[in-house]
Amino acid sequence: MAAPESLRLLDLCAEYSVDCYLKGMSARLPVDALPTPVVPDDIPSAFSGELRVVAQRIIEAASNRVRVHWSAKTYSAGLGTQSGGDDEFEDTLRARFPPLDMPTPLDSPFTVVDVDDDVVLWSLPDMLLPERQAAIATSMGLAADSIAAHPPGPDNPGSKSRWRNSNYLYAQNSNLSFGRGMMTLSPGWLAQGNQGLNSTLHVSSDLGAPPGRQDNAAQASAQTWVAANMETGILLSVALAITHPAQYRETRKALGYLATLPDFARHMETWTFAFNVVTLICNRRTPAHRDRASGGRDFYDLLLTLGGGPRTMLTLPGLGIRIRYDSGTVALFSGHDHLHEVSSFLEERVCIACYARPAAITWLNANHPPPPAGRLTLPEGWWDLLCRGDEDNE
In 70, 176, 347, 372, which residue has its Cα 20 to 30 A from 136's Cα atom? Predict the structure, then answer.
């Protein structure tokens, strides 16, 4: 069965964007320059420009590396089930794996690399152009019914695990264009606690009704938002295709298989996110935590922030980094492993969080990726040349 148009276009854009990244990197390294990629006929000219911006931000980040002097693999092995609620454990972890000493918030593209040259974090400010940000903001009205169906709940200020829907974390204004709440969308996932190969795959209840039942207003709202953001999904997905090609490849394989299954095919007609799950979080700050129920050491989560104002910060305490979380910024890292938090904000904001459910990828006949090594983003030997150049400039 042929891939749906959504995935065909995603493949086309991913290939073009990767070629743009390689072309740009070839111009920065002592290698033969690659030819300028030709824009495929099916990619509109204006959108191809947005794809080139994504590639350029990643080029800038790859060329601006900071290094932690420990192994992300060993760090991950020491976490156990810790989700961030045990302060004594976090102190011990920081003593064993010292964070960077970078007190000033960072506002330029950069990467954090470990001793094995695995890329722990990509920070990509201004990855989305203002026009794209405005289009996404406008589309949030389409998701209003879905967001309203999941409003903030009772406060759980003392809970380290059940905080996500607590009212105290949300903006208290009642008249907000993005609303207050969240929705979690997946065209095919497994329920927590039922993630074996013989478990039942299903569409997330926020996105669609079970087979044979009619979608409600909130589900129809979510579907309309997804359809309106096919280009957004592509832009975020090509960032993954460049920074972690193995994760992109395996997730794309899983989505392709999902598209062949009758109960899921209709949702795949508009799904262009190269992730199992997309969560929209509207007007909420986020305390320090790890997302232990999703992703994994070798998987990137992708966070896109829109709005919020100039004082919004994304902090990764274990890395010793604070990022200026201005509108249009994208960050890729393992939220499963790395403690992260988002500050309060002055203006309305929405976070679009994209992530993997590894059990669903396995169920869909795909494999888990290897660690996200920088060398895997480039032809053989190029990453070593890049590292050598960085060392020469220290």
Answer: 372
Q: How many beta carbons lie within 10 A of that of residue 71, not counting itself?
A: 15
Query: Could you read off the pLDDT of 303-347 as tens digits, one per residue?
Result: 999 999 988 999 999 999 999 999 999 999 999 999 999 999 989
The CA-based dihedral angle spanning residues 214, 217, 219, 222, taken in that order and rounded to the nearest 10 degrees: 150
- Written as six digits, the tokens of 75 are 């760090």
State mean pLDDT over 363-372. 96
C-alpha to C-alpha distance for 69 and 283, rounded to whole angstroms: 36
Structure tokens at 344: 């309060």
- Burial of 328-342, coded b for 16+ CB within 10 Å and e otherwise, reads bbbbbbbbbbbbbbb
- Alpha-carbon distance 340 to 319, whole Å? 9
Residue 260: which domain range? Answer: 5-392
The residue that leads in pLDDT, 391 or 170, is 170
Question: For 112-138, what is each residue's pLDDT tens digit?
Answer: 999 999 999 999 999 999 999 999 999
d(CA 176, CA 162): 24
Contact partners, residue 159, CB within 8 Å, separation at least 6: 166
For the stretch 241-274, pLDDT in tens is 999 999 999 999 999 999 999 999 999 999 999 9
Beta strands in 3-71 (DSSP E): 65-67
Please report the pLDDT score of residue 390 as a whole number: 59
Distance between first and last Cα of the chain? 53
Q: What is the pLDDT of residues 44-89, one digit of tens each?
A: 999 999 999 999 999 999 999 999 999 999 999 999 999 998 999 9
- Residues 235 and 225: their CA atoms lie apart, in Å, by 16
Phi-psi category of residue 211: left, alpha or beta, with phi > 0 → left and psi -120 to 50 → alpha: beta
Amino acid sitting at position 54: V
Query: What DSSP string describes 91-146?
Result: HHHHHHSPPP---SPB-S-EEEE-TT-BEEEEEETT-S-HHHHHHHHHHGGGGHHH
Number of domains in the chain: 1
Which CATH number fits the domain that encloses residue 361? Answer: 3.60.130.30
Quickly list DSSP for 149-174. TS--BS--TT-SSS-TTBGGGB---S
Rounded-to-integer distance, Cα 57 and Cα 141, Å: 29
